[in-house]
Amino acid sequence: MAITSLYLPPTLRRPIPFAPRDHLRREKAIELYEAGEHRAAIDEAIGYLLLPGQPAPDLTNTPLCLVQGTARVRLHIEDERLVVRAVLGALSMEGSATAALRHFLSRLSGTGQLFQPRLRGEVVSLEFEERLTLLHPHKLIEVVQRLAEAACNADSWLAEDFGMQALDREAVQALDEADVRMALEIWRTHWAAVEAMVDEVRRYRSSALLNRVADFAYSQVIYALPLNGGLPERLNDANTIYSDRDEQPARRLAILSKSVKEARALPDGDLVASLGHVGYAINPISEGNAGLLAKVLSGSQREQAIADYHAAGRSFESALYQAVDFLYLLAWFVWPPSVEEALREALDQASGRPLREAADLMRARAAAIVRAHGQGEDSADAIDGGSAFEGAWQ
Amino acid sequence: MTAQVFDAIDQLGVFQVYTGNGTGTGFLIDERHLLTNSHVVAPYREVAVEMRDRSRVLGTVRRVHPRRDLAIVELERPMTERVLELADEDVQRAKQPVHILGFPVGLPLSLTEGVVSHPRQLLDDQVFIQTDAAINPGNSGGPMLDDAQRVVAVTCSKLDAAESVGFGIPVADVRAFIAGFRTQTEAFGLHCPACEELIAQPTRHCPNCGTRLDEHDDCGDFFRSPDLQPVSEFVEAALRAADINPVLARHGELSWSFYRGSALVRIFCCCADHVNFSCRLAQPGRSGLRELFAHLLSHEHAPFFFDLNGSIIRFNHVVHMADVFTPSEHPALIARVGEFIARADAADDILIERFGCQPAPDTMIDRLDSPDHGA
User: Fold this and answer.
1) Which range, of A31-40, A357-366, B119-128, averages the lowest pLDDT?
2) Does any domain span residue B35?
3) What is the span of the domain harbouring residue B343?
4) What is the CATH number of the domain that holds B247?
5) How many domains does chain B fold into?
6) Is Protease set as a keyword in this record (chain B) (predicted)?
7) Interface residue of A91, A111, A136, A164 to substitute, partner B, most B CBs within 10 Å
8) Helices (H) and strands (E) in chain A, counts
9) Contact between A118 and B299 using a beta-carbon 8 Å cutoff
10) What would the pLDDT profile of B41-63 be if each residue is shown by its tens digit?
C-alpha cells in the first residue's frame, strides 16, 4: 500500500506546565547550607525543584510526599538525618522474586548514584539517608530528582513482570470515554502506518529511512498517549534496539517489525489498562530552549537534506524527516505555550495532507518558528545554555 | 626467537609502573633498579611498581633526564626476575627485527613485534630508533629487544597522526645514563635539559648554565610535591587513615586500587559528581540465589551497597563531590571509607562461605590460600 500522507494525531497526555526553575532559590539554599542553617537549606533546595502548585516544603515540622507519576517519594527528618524513600513494591512468594531481586541488583543498584534499592522484609524501596550537615543542596537536588525519576520508571510493570505487589503507589487517573476511543484510534492507525513504512524500508533498503521510521514509531506513540506500566517499558526495550544506529540494520528492522506486529495484535483491553493520567511534583522531562529549537529546526545540513529529498522526488522521506523533528521536540521537552502551540500546529496542518504538501508546509512552519522563537544557527550549540533561553522567553 | 621470548615472558624483569598521572613500563637494570621513561614517573619522586602477583612495591625515583626521557627508580626490595642485558652497540641497520615488551593500555605484560624502520631518526634534535612495531599508551619505558633478547632501545613514543611510527631511545644513550647513575652519590639527580649537568638540590636555575628549569619538561616539578586535586587529597587522606600507602594505590589520574585482604578495592570518578569505591567480590553460585540476592539488597548494608555488574557481585560506596569540598565533614567521611574497606575485606568470605559464591576472577583468594601466604 503506497503511503500518501502522514498520520500525526494530537496528544492525549496532560501538559506539564512550563515553569523554568528559579535558580536564585538554589543559590539561596547554598547560602543557607553554608551558614549552617541546614533545615532551611533543605526546604529551599526542594522548593527549587518542585513544579508550581506544590506545597512549600517544611520538613522540620511535616514529612513531605512528592508524587511523581505513580511513585510516592517520601521525605522526613529523623535524628538530624534526612530520609528519602520511595517504595517500589513487595516481593510475592508466588511471583518471580529471584528475578525481581536480580533486576534491582543489576539495573537499579549501581555506582554513580547516591540512592540505592534496599530490602526491608519483603518490601523493596529506593532509599537515601544522610546527616543534615552532609546535605549540600547540589547533592540533595541530585538525589531527590534522580530517585524520583527512578521510582517513577519502576511502576506497575514490576507487578506485571515479577508478580510484585504494588505498595504506596499513587493511583492512575483513568481517561474519559472519548479519550479512550481516541487512544484506541491513535494506537491502531499509528501502528498500521508504521507497518506500511516498514514495508517501504524493505523496498528501499535504506538505513537512513529505517532511522527515521524507528524514531517516528516510538516518538509518536510516547508523545500521543499517556501510557503506564509494562507496555511503555516493552516499547522502550524494543526501541533501544531498533533505534540503535550501531546495531545491525537487519536486526533493527526485524525487531521493529516484531514490535509493530505485537502492537497491532495488542487487545484493546490491554491498551486501555495501560492508559491513564499521572501527576508530577518534579518536571520529568527537560525544558526546551531557543537554542534547541534552532538546532533541530534549522541549519544548513537539514536544509540540504530536505532539498535533496525534494530534488529526488522523495516526498515521503522529506515529510517523515521533518515530522520526526517536530515529534522529538514535543515528546521530550516542555515548552512555553506559544511554542508548544506553534509546534503542534505544524503537525496538525501536515497530518493527512499529500506528502509533498505536508513536507513544504512543515518546512515553512519550521522556518517561521525559528524566526519567532528560536535563535540563529550561530547559537545552535547553546542547548544547555540557560541564559540565552531566559533572555528570549522570560 | 619469538617463541623463546614468549616462553620466558613472565620471568623477565619487566614491570608496570603506576603514578597519579598514569601508567607505563619499566625494566630491571639490576635487582634493585628499574629503568623507565622520565615522562612515566613525572612529576612524582615516589611511584608504585606492580609485581606479577599484582602486589606492589614502592619505587623511589633516583635519577631523571627529562630531555632524553629516561629515569631510574630504586625499588624497596630486590627482585628475582631476570635482568635484561643491554646490547653492546646501537642498531645499525633498518629492517632488523625488534620485540617490544610492555603493558599497553594497562593490559598484562604483552609482546609486540616489528622491524627497525630507521636506526637513527632525528627528531627534535635527538636521535631515536624508529620502528613499525605496535606501541600504545602504557608501553612507554619498556624495553625494545633484539633477537638475542638484548635491550636495543627504550620505548618512548609514537606518532598519533601516523600508522606504525614508534620511537625508542637508543641503547648508547641508555648506557650513558645508567653509567652516570652508577657513580651518583646524591639521593636524587636531575639532568639539566640544556647542559646535562646533574642537579641534586632544588633550584630555579641550572647552577652550571643558568637555564630556567621550570620552563623545561617537568624539570621544576621534580623538586616539589605534586599538587593534588581536592579529590585526590580526600581519597589519599582516607587511604592513609586506613593504613594504606596512597603512592602504592595510585592507578592513574583520579584512580586508585589496592588489596585489603582478598578484596581488590578500586576508587574512581565516573563523572564530575561522584567518587566511587567499588570492590569486585564474587560470582553467584547456582543455588540459593533468592537468599543471596535478599542479603545483598538488605538495608543493613547502608550507606554501602552491593550490586551485580554482569556476573560479578560488587560492594560499593559513593561519595558526592560536594562532600569532598566540605572539609569540616572529612573526619566522618574518612571514617566511613575506613568502615567500607573493612567490610569489603570481610564481605567476600561471607558470600563464599555462607552463600556458596565463587571468588571473582581478580580477587587474591588463590594467593592468600597458598602455603607461603603470611610468611
Assistant:
1) B119-128
2) no
3) 230-366
4) 3.30.1460.10
5) 2
6) yes
7) A111
8) 16, 8
9) yes
10) 999 999 999 998 888 999 999 99
